[in-house]
Amino acid sequence: MKHKIKKITGAENYQLQSYNHHKLWTKSFILAIIVVIILGGISLFTGVYDIRGQQDGMNMFFITRVPRTAALMLTGAAMSMSGLVMQLVTQNRLVEPTTTGTIEWAGLGLTFVYLLFPAPTLVQRMTGAIIFSFLGTMIFFIFLKRIKLRSSIVVPIIGMMLGAVISAVSTFVGLLFQMTQSIESWFVGSFASVQIGRYEYLWLIVVVTFFIFIYADRLTLAGLGEDVTTSLGLNYNRIVLIGTGLISFAVGVVAAVIGNLPFLGLIVPNIVSMYRGDDLRSNLPWVCVLGMGTITVCDIISRTIIMPFEVPVSLILGTVGAVVFIVILMRQRRLR
């Protein structure tokens, strides 16, 4: 009798721990939000221009500082979400827009837009980047589906090789038609040019977040494999198509407005999944908040490391992301 009571108590404790684990408004999550708000405040008051000592300081504050901080938050959420969805769909923790060639396909789309329209609008650049991101990501998924790979490490290697080829094509087209100066800003992701009137399309990321949250359970099931998803009465290919479309939309918007931001979708989802598992719905708020904090920290470093000059935030992200990528590889090898 005592044994049965202990078993029931243990099950109840397990359910309570599981409930607390997936509960959103925990002390740690509230603390994370507070830290991100503090980082946003630091970002607002970091810069060479003295907004408090100049007569037009407040105007410059709302023209440049506020849009830049808002762009940091939206971009961090977008790229982190994209990495999380990609890792679920491919069942591979080393996959994100940088390691699948998605961001390079977006760059190729921008190149062709500049080829067709000598002075394209932001909407035209976004459209080209989104379409090519979608095509490139679908090509990558189809390639993985047709070829059986023995090691998960091979997947990002193939993606980076494909991305390198696409990047070379973009460079060749740019040199051939003398468009290198028009597209070179994309290759170096930076928030230096963000100001009012040039970042507002990033708010579309909020819409993408909404739809990802709606399809969160289906995308999580798709991460269990095609057989499991089909056995539960869902259309696996349709779910993957919707997920790819949402990823491509977010990456295309970021690529058109900001540029290339490597490894952000790799760093944040892996840290969150390491501590919270693979449930997309419960992890999504965490991924968004930590993505905002990560890119804001990198941007603050990029603005202060060689003040009064500024290094591209992609340089800081690439360095940190490369280290995290190597650590994940070594960790997987040790687990085997």
TrEMBL record:
UniProt main location, coarse:
membrane
Q: Which domain of life is it from?
A: Bacteria
Q: One Pfam family name from the record?
A: FecCD
Q: Which InterPro entries match?
A: ABC_BtuC-like (IPR037294), ABC_transptr_permease_BtuC (IPR000522)
Look up the signal peptide feature and give its range.
none
Name its GO BP terms in alphabetical order: siderophore-iron import into cell
For this chain, one GO molecular function annotation is: transmembrane transporter activity
Q: How does it sit in the membrane?
A: Multi-pass membrane protein
Q: Which UniProt keywords apply?
A: Cell membrane, Ion transport, Iron, Iron transport, Membrane, Transmembrane, Transmembrane helix, Transport
**CC terms in the record's Gene Ontology section:** plasma membrane
Q: Any transmembrane segments, and where?
A: 29-49, 70-89, 101-117, 129-147, 153-177, 198-216, 239-272, 312-330
The protein's location, in the record's own words, is: Cell membrane
Q: Of which family is this protein a member?
A: Belongs to the binding-protein-dependent transport system permease family. FecCD subfamily.
Q: What is this protein called?
A: Transport system permease protein
